[in-house]
Amino acid sequence: MSAATGRAEGAVAALDARAREQQTQLAALRVQLSAAQDDLAALTDDIHRDEVARAAQQARVEQLQQKAIEELGIDPDVLVEDFGPHQLVPVVVAAGEEPGEPQPYVREVQEKRLRRAERGLRELGRINPLALEEFAALEERHSFLTKQMEDLKASKRDLLDIVREVDQRVEEVFTAAFHDTAEQFERVFARLFPGGEGRIFLTDPSDMLTTGIEVEARPPGKKVKRLSLLSGGERSLVAVALLVAIFKARPSPFYIMDEVEAALDDTNLGRLITLFEELRDSSQLIVITHQKRTMEVADALYGVSMRGDGVTNVVSQRLRSLDEPA
After folding, report:
1. Which of 92, 227, 235, 266 has the CA that lies 20 to 30 A from 314?
2. 13 within some domain
3. Which among 100, 241, 125 is positioned nearest to 181, based on CA atoms?
4. How far lies 55's CA from each of 48, 51, 254, 272, in Å?
5. Alpha carbon 132 to its chain's center
6. CA distances from 99 to 88, 102, 211 (A)
7. How many CB atoms lie within 10 A of CB 255?
8. Model pTM?
9. Is residue 92 part of a domain?
10. Domain count along the chain
11. What is the extent of the structural domain holding 210?
């Protein structure tokens, strides 16, 4: 029995050892199975992500193809053929700059250009759907204002031509009148100041429209020519000489003079009255005066007197008839 028992115990021990070995192998296989399952799950996730990415990419491609057809009106195959990465990329430059040479397609460079373009587009703001209508209205307004501006420029040119013609005519008339007046002034001055010299001249003969007029007067027996150095009566007589010279150079139907001889002595008054008599042959003279000798040569007198009740009264008296010689 002991031998059988020993063999049985040896068999049991061998079986136990084999069972433990198999358990160890089973545990190792389970670890391998778990690792394989994890790898399978990871591969499955990768495949799923790839399929999702492929589907998204396909949807993006289809969207771009549809956008190319709707917005650009170009077939996707033609678009890829004409504008694909195998084509050279033209260099966009600012207005007025020389265009550069086309460059090979480099994705990073083109992505930077795309970002710059998108940033510039955002800075432009939202698209105004009424921009075309507003532009048409502004263009019409601009065209109208441009025509108005051209009309104004044409009117300005016409007015400037008229101004030049008027200035030329005024200059011609003034020049002729000045020379005639200067000639008459020398004659009149010689009659009012026998033996004296008087003349008028221009301060700026090169510009007849803005020039001034200077008067030089030298009474007989004096060396001074400035008016400020003459006596009051002499200055008055020089002024009257200038007026009479203008009257003779450019006659008028009538003249009104207000006490022009108030500061003159009898001799100079007599000379001035002689000129008055010459002027009234061609013009009517209205002279306001207190000088008796001036009144004596008048055709009619008009005066204002006050009655005893304080009421003023206009008095007139004709000294000679119209057909009576002066």
Report:
1. 266
2. no
3. 241
4. 10, 6, 111, 122
5. 28
6. 14, 9, 61
7. 18
8. 0.51
9. no
10. 1
11. 173-294+304-318
